[in-house]
Amino acid sequence: MSYITVDHVTREFKSFKRPKGLKNALTTLLKRNYEVKKAVDDLSFTVDKGELVGYIGPNGAGKSTTIKMLTGIITPTCGTIKTGGIIPWENRKENARHIGVVFGQRSQLNWDLPMEDTFELYRRMYRTEEIKFRKNTEMFTELLEMQPFLNKPVRQLSLGQKMRAELAIALLHDPEILYLDEPTIGLDVVVKDKIRKFVRELNREKKTTVILTTHDMADIEEICDRIIMIDHGTLMLDQSVALFKSQGADQYYAEVSFRYCKEPLFLDGVELIKELPFCHTYRINHRLVSVNVLLSRISELFEVTDITIKKPEIDEIVRKIYTSQPGETSGQLLYTK
Amino acid sequence: MFGLYGAFAKVVFLTQLEYRGQYIMRMIAKILGWSSGFILLVILLKKVGPVAGWGLYEILLLYTFDVLSYSIAGTFFMGGFGKLPRLIRSGELDGILTKPVNPLIYLICTKVSAGYTSNYVMAGVIMGISLHKLGVSLSFYQVIWLILDIAGASLIQAAGFMVTTVPAFWFMKSDGLYRLFYKNLTCFLQYPLTIYHGGIRFLLTFILPYAFINFYPVQLFINKQEVMLSPLFLFLTPFVGAFVFFIAYRFWQKGLDAYQSTGS
After folding, report:
1. Which of A13, A73, A125 sits opposite B97 (nearest CB)?
2. Most CB atoms within 10 A, among A13, A115, A172, A329?
């Protein structure tokens, strides 16, 4: 039995079309043309308890709209959603007890209060038991290394510290589902890493179901087990991260640094994609060229100083999928599990 | 339950006092703003004499009922509702809707304003002076009524804030409504309703019952019974307050529903 069910959900937005010219602008005071846009269009998927799902898509694909419906902030135009047996927008308060939400772009913290005091207010808001509360604060303080700034007012914290604090308060009441909307936006590598490790650790310890939207594919790679991709409000792809990555596996890159070169490498299935003095990067289709042939040709043509073989990164696969959907028409379903 | 919201309100209120410089500036600005209006009123009345049979201190009493109830309503409602369009646009409202709380109470408590404390003092002092000059000594029951009247008047003012700002849920902006139907119309409250045309009296009694903020309840304390349909009007303020606030609350809920089905 799946924990989150999204069943044929459509969400329309009426947007007002602003015409050009003063005369037309005046007529809109009397009569308006609305344009109905589907932010989410007949979307269905299910998530099991304890899954770590990366929810991705280009800007404006409908990710935030979906999260807003899942958290009960807005209602869908049609279709149903159930999270843990609850319809979120009908039992908004009840639903809120079981979820934790972090919006990377807006803060929920009180600017003037130190974290400790905010923790206490949240304990009372969620009526968290004292023991659970103390255990969680200790655990989060340690895992997120928050000790040094627990008693500083939030306005004095850095962005990274604030984001860790946001995560902690969203989780104090042991929510069953955690929604993370771009949690690593604007953060440095070290903090990103801390947050990713923390989310994984949390999932292992408490079996928290996590739904994460992000544009940073490293988030997906390091946190998630499964990718759901949408574009123009429709489901594009739903598969495991491992399988997703294997899509690009028939290609790899060879970066050859050399002291001397007779002529550039030219073979079927090999393409020169970056040419620098004393360094060439080739894209190799591994079905057409065996590694043996490649290496022997390279050693014939170059006096090699260094060679690096790279697998394509998840970023690149995603870029390929995003850009291969031209125009406003919604793309066809690529893959679902 | 009250404990939680009380804790939020306390924290928000106290942190405003922590910014001492800003707090003092606000107090000075408020005192100057209100007292210039008040002084103008006194000068005018001293020159003109009684207005429709209402003497200086009687009109000042009207004035203090208005200021006091406005300040109480402002303390709790101005922070949240004055900035409602911004809360909607910035997505702060989304944060509230993902918490297991009553959105209205949470909004009120997290936006409590400490900026009205000088008004309480000022209005309280002027009220005391006016009552004293008018030779009114309040009996125990009158004190109770005074408190109930101020509470009711505050609810009317709060309902006025809410009803004129909640349309932001549909239109994204609502400054115009607020200015016209709240700010401008409550200006009539400075003077006794007696001096206005019947249409305005009707409007302020039955359509937007701002007259119950000061004109009707004040008369109980100064032994007047002007332009009221029934002597009962002297005692109606707490009930009118409860009633219009209930309507405003329902309107707010409708607004939230609309937000949930149109929100961006």
Report:
1. A73
2. A115
